Amino acid sequence: MKYKHLTESQRYEIKAYLKCHKSQKFIAEQLGVSQSCISRELERNKLKRGGYNPQRAQEVANLRKERFCNNRLFTKAVKDFIEQKLTQEQWSPEQIVGYCSKQEIEMVSVERIYQHIRADKKNGGKLYKQLRHQLKHRKRPVSGKYEVIKNKKSIETRPEIVLTNQEFGHYEIDLIIGAEGKGAILTVVERKTKFLFMEKLKGKNAKELAKSMVNMLLPYKNSIKTITSDNGTEFAEHQYISQKLACDFYFAHPYSSWERGLNENTNGLIRQYIPKGTYFEKVSKEKIKEYQHKINRRPRLTLNFEEPKNLFFKFVNQIALAS
Fold first, then answer.
1. For residue 242, which phi and psi values (nearest 5 degrees)?
2. pLDDT of 262 above 90
């Protein structure tokens, strides 16, 4: 079996499993790699005083890539495979690399695929239009007063058990913006059950968002342990949310969407009903709730085809009975 290159997120998962005293065999099964892959990873990145540091392991892996990975792998066959999956299946670079890793197909890195897409765009190509985000990044104001979110807790201080999805009550939140930056939809997802909450907002006002979120989650206050968001100033009232819901609020690293991967993926499901470019004033609150219920009734492969709705309320009821 070929050695499967671990991603940065997988390395943090390894650390979390180790802290929970899980075996190498168990970790390998959860990550979908061989046990020898985990063994090599831990041996190669063993610290002098013992233990494993995922950040250091990733830095070492990046250095190895710089030394040994060059364009020789970007063959015509690799290029054709990438472009076929992009244009015919609309797979993301992450999905292409993940699939090839699982099927043991030779493939370049995610970043190398993005480089190819950017170069194609520069030359007038249209590969970028097959991506969900079309290489667009959320724009921030470049002038005027810069708002700083006070008293932020970094995701680095978040309990590592959150990554394992073994514990109920850990949430990710995000904001979907409407056409021309008008209107917004707050999305909240519970990690273990994949249960989704959606709420229509007038815009990105932090106080309005905080009040809406508290009202939405207050009935489940006893089961909420952590909330994680990106660094958007719309989450500036995080202390109010944390106080009202009696939970810890954490912020992911800038430009690290993988740290809230579930929320990003769930937003993709929402786009099936509310495509990019939609004017949110044309979408009623009733319709948004209808879409929420539909998504929560979908059997999920990652849940062994259970419905998020059933699992979520099962855990909520268990906590209510135990209190």
1. -60, -40
2. no
Beta carbons of 264 and 228 less than 8 angstroms apart: no
Kindly state the percentage of the chain with pLDDT values over 70.
Answer: 92
Q: Give the Å distances, CA to CA, from 33 to 4, 48, 79, 116.
A: 7, 26, 25, 27
Packing angle between helix 93-103 and helix 110-122, nearest 10 degrees? 140
DSSP code for 306: B
CB contact set of 250 (below 8 Å; sequence gap of 6+): 153, 154, 155, 157, 158, 226, 227, 228, 229
- 63 to 59, 82, 251: CA distances (angstroms): 6, 25, 27
Q: Indicate if the pLDDT at residue 318 is higher than 80.
A: yes
Buried b / exposed e across 277-301, counting CB within 10 Å, b at 16+? ebebeebeeeebeebbeebbeeeee
Which H helix or E strand runs over 59?
helix 54-68
Pairing of strands 170-177, 196-201: unpaired
Q: What percent of the chain has pLDDT over 90?
A: 39
pLDDT of residue 4: 58
- 3-class secondary-structure state, position 277: coil
Which residues, at least 6 apart from 320, have a Cβ–Cβ distance to it below 8 Å? 222
- How many whole angstroms separate alpha carbon 74 and alpha carbon 57? 25
Please give the torsion angle defined by the CA atoms of residues 187, 188, 189 and 195, in that order, rounded to the nearest 10 degrees. -90
In this structure, what DSSP letter does residue 46 have? B
For helices 24-31 and 8-19, give the axis angle rounded to 10 degrees: 140
